[in-house]
TrEMBL record:
Keywords: Membrane, Transmembrane, Transmembrane helix. The chain crosses the membrane at residues 21-40, 60-86, 98-117, 123-146, 158-181. Pfam families: DUF2306. This is DUF2306 domain-containing protein. The keyword Membrane applies. The keyword DNA damage does not apply. It comes from Caulobacter vibrioides (strain ATCC 19089 / CIP 103742 / CB 15) (Caulobacter crescentus). It comes from the Bacteria.
Amino acid sequence: MDPHGKSISQASDRWSGLRNAALGVGAATLIVALTAPGAFTDLGAFAQQVRFQPHAPDFSRIAAAPAVVQVHLFSALTALAIGVVLMMRVKGTTLHKLLGWTWVLAMGSTAVSSLFIREINHGAFSFIHLLSGWTIIGLPGAVYAIKRGKVSAHRKAMTGMFVGGLLVAGVFTFLPGRLLWTVFLG
């Protein structure tokens, strides 16, 4: 342990989580810039085109959503909250392991439930479902890595799933026409 109570591996790479989050947000911004170039050049016209009307959250739209969407949203928000706590706290403790297993269950539920949500793409899978497949395969691999003492592989896999599977995918939930867009902005 180092003097600040962090594990040695965590202390040596303390900015990796922030760096990965910045890369994820940058990638999401780049995707938006490439798919909707008018979003940045003429913000007013773009806001009118997508019916951007910020308002008080309309949670009745979540209540009216199909059960699989509600399960998906609940498990994703649970994984996000636990993930933030896990990223900020000391690794290897009993609390970390307990929260980690809860996070794995929440991420697994999020990934599996997303496979049943296909309304946006006329019943077909979309690009975002690739993140679900990556998570379904990556979760057992990351757990296996830590069980074998491969801390660095575990940290990289879990951080990648947190950034890609929650933060980047979470940005996509606010695209026009998606549920969270209508709840908060549309």
